Amino acid sequence: MGLINLEDREKRAIAAIDNGELDRLVDEAITYEQHGKLNNLPLHDCGDYVSSKLRYFDRALADYRKAKSAKKREETRYYAQKAGRDLTFAVRQMKQRLEVEEREGQIFHVFDPSMPLVAPSESMRVRVSYRWRESPEDDWNSGSILFKYKFRPRRDPYTLTQPKPKRKPSARKLAEDRENELRREWEHLEQLAHWSVRDYFRAGHDGAAIPDEFEVKTDDCDHLNNFSADFWERSRGS
Q1: Considering the entire predicted model, what is its pTM?
Q2: Residues 67 and 55 in one domain
Q3: How far apart (Å, rounded) are the C-alpha atoms in residues 110 and 142?
Q4: Which of 2, 111, 148, 221 is at 20 to 30 A from 23, Cα to Cα?
């Protein structure tokens, strides 16, 4: 699953699952204490969210199957049923996301990141590419916006950590920690930038009005927040 868009494999798997059949097969799996025909559904291809719920259901079903006493059977059956409901709910949520994505895809598309970060630095740049049109009958327009951000360290992790380390970290360890911190911040910026462009289009704004560049805003402590990449002013409720 991409940062913004579902992969084609995930779209096909989500669309192929019938909600009623899924409900029936989950109930059947609990009744017979084994997956049975549930394995025939492409649940593993529906993305990480559904896959995680399927793993929880697998464990809950295994615990129910291994339970011996009446009390333990009742308890584990309850958790298996709950995990089953969570699984079916997750699939329904993904179906809703697919519907929204396909509907929005008729008039705009924000491309997922394609270039991995190679050498993180404090001067961060994230480019978001997109396309849009006024209606499904119109030709596509394309563009991009460059988000700029000057990272400022939050703290020195070794002077503020309690208790203090008995031995001073090596230069290599300090460099690794620094690179990891920069990488996490860049990934955060990348998310905020792509989500901001997507939300801009969702709010019905014109792609032609998106600036070429935007200096990311920070909070009072010079750190990123949920609105840092908003190059546009959100109206209430959007």
Answers
A1: 0.83
A2: yes
A3: 10
A4: 2
